[in-house]
Write a structure and sequence with these properties.
- By secondary structure, this protein is mainly alpha-helical.
- It has two domains: 59 residues, Helix Hairpins (Orthogonal Bundle), CATH 1.10.287.990; 104 residues, Iron/manganese superoxide dismutase, C-terminal domain (minor pseudopilin epsh fold, 3-Layer(bab) Sandwich), CATH 3.55.40.20.
- 53% of the residues lie in helices and 12% in strands.
- The chain has eight helices and three strands, in the order αααααβββααα.
- It has a three-stranded antiparallel β-sheet with strand order 2-1-3.
- The mean pLDDT is 97.
- It binds manganese (III) ion.
- The site of manganese (III) ion has 7 residues, from helix 1 and helix 6.
């Protein structure tokens, strides 16, 4: 079965005014879709095509890895946001953030620094590393599962993610992600599964 583009978990205009409809049409409909089309082409007629996306990510490199990982990363990114998101997490996730970062304010500071300083294309992540929450950044298509970490939340800092809405202002995009878009319910569900 060829891989298919997962639908957005909300309407393409649902993240306005922060990320515009045009931005999501381009990012989901063109960029995310291109990774699906490319992976299907690369795997056409090969036994790997029967594997799960995660199995392909863990056992490949080069173009197959890049396209498979980018499919996974983008699906995870769409779920890391929601309309009227942002604010602060609650419950077990809030407690774990306080335990491992000292405070939510310190988490925000560290996450913002990671997302701002990822040079060129990549991702910043909140992960669980053996039960300890950490912030990481990865270049290009790289992702936490390759380092045996469980992703809880991510922000795409490739320019295509924010340029249509924020132009060159990556720091403003990161600030907006934390203030108005971050889906803490999704991160909390990922933490619960990681235990
Ligand atoms: Mn992207």
């Amino acid at each position: 079965m060829p891989f298919t583009l997962p639908p957005l978990p909300y309407d393409v205009a649902a993240l306005e005014p922060h990320l515009t409809k045009e931005n999501l049409e381009l990012h989901h409909g063109k960029h995310h879709n291109a990774y699906v089309v490319n992976l299907n082409k690369l795997l056409d007629g090969k036994p790997e095509a029967a594997k799960s996306l995660e199995e392909i990510i863990m056992s490949s490199d080069g173009g197959v890895f890049n396209n498979a990982a980018q499919i996974w990363n983008h699906t995870f990114y769409w779920n890391s946001m929601k309309p009227k998101g942002g604010g602060e997490p609650t419950g077990d996730l809030a407690a774990a953030i306080t335990r491992d970062f000292g405070s939510f304010a310190k988490f925000k500071e560290d996450f913002t620094a990671a997302a701002t300083t990822q040079f060129g294309s990549g991702w910043a992540w909140l992960v669980s590393d053996g039960g300890t929450l950490k912030i990481t950044k990865t270049g290009n298509a790289d992702l936490p599962m390759k380092s045996k970490q469980t992703a809880l939340l991510t922000i795409d800092v490739w320019e295509h993610a924010y340029y249509p809405s924020f132009k060159n202002l990556r720091p403003k995009y990161i600030e907006t992600f934390l203030a108005s878009l971050a889906n803490w319910d999704f991160a909390a569900a990922n933490l619960a599964k990681a235990k």
